[in-house]
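Structure first, sequence second, as always.
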């Protein structure tokens, strides 16, 4: 990984990466000292409600930043549909022409377009790719990424383990808001409000009232939720910045493109001071934005009720009071671009030249002849040339020959020389440097038929749900999916149609445990294994490999990338409308969900810990919202290694419209259901009958 004290650009490590939701925020972040900024191009990023930048504004932003030695990372980190791929290709061209440094990508289609259109752009793996293990970063490296942005949920030891194993840079979040759900694995906003967080339009339903409760006797019937047991405090890991640097972290990221210029400046200033080992204004950082304080729970491994918090009126009042002080942090530009100034004299006129470390130069000549001085002018000249405050430049060397120090020019003339060469140097550094844009045409993807006859299949949470099915009903299924840990319970005759499913997230010790579960499935005569995380592509297996929910497939170009990685079939992400699903090419079998209580959230923090600790917990609970709806919660394992799943109480159902699914297989996903319910629902679905009770079509007809 190279020198742990520097990034691959030679800047101090770790890089301080600041949010820039609009031009004002970008200016504040840069002037207060950020090493890099990340910003969104209008339409294709995970914060569509931020101001974002048009292609023309992006060019101006890159010029402004590069003139000051600040790198620009552009977020193209949303899931896209097939109809949007042409626009996405144009967005990649715009980023390259602007001369930006890197693209933050989530969808594999984005990565494919960057590699083919603008290979000079660095690829950074978005946190929405759910990378949180050593094998995850190794897989990103194998796919051509130069940096992995790790999940927020990691402990310091887990970060250290990943960074030490990583062949590429790792980036972590150091300050700002935390989603309750693991990034890239949340469908709550999409299924509750039709606004997909995976596509940059999250409505933030987790900040609304949800009361955690036991499954039995927790809340009175009809009583709405009033607490906010899905709302986490903001993270603050600034006190640990030097420990993160020692762990091998290349970049620390401040979350908050929807916040204010004052917020960006306060966070950048705190990070700069912490990196230098100096005290910083903790009160200003807290007051400029917090949710009743901060948490370091994930980093320190304290996954408890102290992680939860809400934004209060007192917090808002503190922000208003702190704003004027924060504005002072970017009132004057930080001088930080090293420059060498050289004085010479020829023919009576004084020449001043300036050169930076990147090869840019500028030169100016005095307007009047210099006169012999009565005494040495060296100190006065150096003082005049060193007055670069309010500019990006910091003189690292002033070369003043002895003969030049014996010449006299008025102070105003030295000031004019300095201003002229630095203005020229800034203009030269601001000249756009576009990246190469290669010719590229999207491949033609044939449309799937709008109506078909998808073969029925099922996914079961437990072996009992499958084993309890009558043989005649089971025989109608093309295949079934079962968690790998449950597979050894199956009798031999059921194994040839079984796919062993690996988990969507696997923190800490869970990754080697997943390997062991997969190894136990080898030699059982299974139909294959379902991968749900990029890390799992590195697991050795002789089983045919298929893609599951965790891989977030929404377009044909991404499907092609997964096919090249060795997958023989994929599950379409349930946020994919049927019209977009039709665009998947026919050469990779595609499955679509036709029934199931959607896993709205995967969380490492446990909402039930607002009530009790793990001791005595049966790993089951409820969350009641403000409309008195109860959302089931299930825990995979106690403690920090496990995850909790929040399910939609309203099931997705397409049993009476199976022919409208443009897929090869229609999968009924059973999770919460008792075996008797599984039989009843499966019979109704196979007979094409309407659902008995409340249901949703999800986003299929969006």
């Amino acid at each position: 990984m190279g020198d742990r004290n520097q990034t691959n650009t030679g800047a101090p490590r770790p890089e301080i990466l600041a949010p820039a939701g609009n031009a004002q925020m970008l200016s504040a972040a840069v002037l207060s000292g950020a090493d890099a900024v990340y910003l969104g191009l209008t339409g294709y990023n995970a914060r569509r409600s931020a101001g974002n930048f048009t292609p023309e504004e992006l060019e101006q932003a890159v010029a402004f930043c590069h003139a000051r030695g600040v790198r620009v990372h552009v977020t193209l980190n949303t899931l896209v549909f097939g109809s949007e791929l042409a626009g996405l290709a144009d967005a990649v061209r715009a980023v390259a022409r602007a001369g930006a440094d890197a693209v933050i990508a989530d969808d594999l289609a984005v990565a494919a377009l960057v590699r083919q259109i603008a290979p000079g752009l660095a690829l950074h793996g978005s946190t929405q790719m759910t990378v949180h293990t050593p094998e995850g970063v190794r897989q990103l490296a194998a796919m051509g990424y130069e940096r992995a942005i790790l999940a927020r949920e990691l402990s310091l030891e887990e970060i250290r383990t990943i960074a030490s194993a990583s062949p590429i840079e790792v980036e972590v979040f150091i300050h700002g808001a935390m989603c309750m759900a693991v990034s890239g694995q949340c469908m709550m906003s999409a299924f509750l409000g039709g606004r997909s967080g995976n596509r940059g339009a999250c409505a933030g339903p987790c900040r609304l009232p949800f009361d955690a409760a036991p499954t039995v006797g927790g809340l009175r019937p009809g009583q709405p939720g009033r607490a906010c047991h899905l709302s986490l405090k903001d993270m603050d890991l600034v006190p640990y910045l030097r420990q993160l640097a020692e762990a091998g972290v290349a970049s620390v990221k401040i979350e908050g493109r929807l916040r204010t210029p004052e917020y960006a400046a306060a966070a950048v200033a705190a990070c700069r001071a912490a990196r230098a080992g100096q005290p910083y204004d903790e009160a200003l950082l807290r007051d400029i934005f917090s949710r009743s304080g901060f948490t370091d729970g994930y980093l320190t491994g304290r996954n408890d009720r102290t992680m939860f918090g809400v934004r209060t009126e007192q917090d808002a009042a503190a922000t208003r009071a702190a704003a004027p002080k924060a504005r002072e942090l970017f009132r004057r530009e930080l001088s930080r671009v090293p420059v060498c100034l050289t004085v010479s004299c020829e023919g009576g006129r004084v020449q001043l030249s300036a050169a930076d470390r990147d090869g840019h130069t500028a030169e100016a000549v005095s307007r009047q002849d210099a006169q012999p001085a009565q005494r040495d002018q060296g100190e006065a000249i150096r003082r005049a040339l060193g007055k670069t405050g309010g500019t990006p430049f910091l003189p690292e060397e002033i070369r003043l020959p002895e003969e030049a120090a014996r010449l006299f020019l008025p102070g105003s003339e030295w000031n004019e020389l300095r201003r002229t060469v630095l203005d020229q140097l800034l203009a030269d550094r601001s000249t756009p440097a576009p990246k190469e844009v290669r010719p590229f045409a999207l491949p033609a993807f044939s449309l799937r038929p709008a109506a078909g006859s998808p073969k029925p299949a099922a996914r079961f949470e437990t072996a009992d749900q499958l084993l309890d099915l009558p043989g005649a009903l089971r025989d109608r299924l093309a295949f079934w999916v079962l968690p790998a840990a449950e597979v050894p319970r199956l009798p031999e005759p059921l194994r040839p149609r079984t796919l062993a499913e690996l988990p969507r997230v696997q923190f800490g010790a869970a990754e080697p445990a997943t390997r062991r579960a997969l190894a136990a499935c080898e030699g059982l005569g299974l139909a294959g294994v379902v991968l749900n995380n990029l890390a799992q592509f590195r697991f050795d297996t002789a089983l045919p490999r298929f893609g599951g929910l965790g891989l977030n497939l929404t377009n044909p170009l991404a499907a092609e990338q997964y096919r090249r990685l060795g997958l023989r079939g994929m599950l379409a992400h349930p946020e994919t409308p049927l019209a977009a699903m039709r665009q998947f090419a026919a050469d990779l079998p595609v499955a679509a969900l036709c029934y199931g209580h959607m896993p709205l959230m995967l969380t490492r923090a446990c909402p039930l810990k607002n009530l009790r600790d793990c001791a005595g917990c049966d790993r089951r609970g409820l969350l009641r919202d403000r409309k008195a709806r109860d959302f089931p919660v299930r825990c995979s394992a106690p403690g920090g290694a496990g995850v909790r799943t929040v399910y939609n109480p309203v099931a997705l159902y397409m049993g009476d419209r199976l022919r409208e699914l443009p897929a090869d297989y229609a999968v009924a996903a059973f999770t919460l259901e008792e075996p008797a319910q599984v039989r009843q629902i499966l019979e109704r679905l196979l007979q094409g009958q309407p659902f008995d009770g409340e249901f949703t079509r999800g986003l299929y007809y969006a």
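Margin note: Confidence is low (pLDDT under 50) at residues 1-10.
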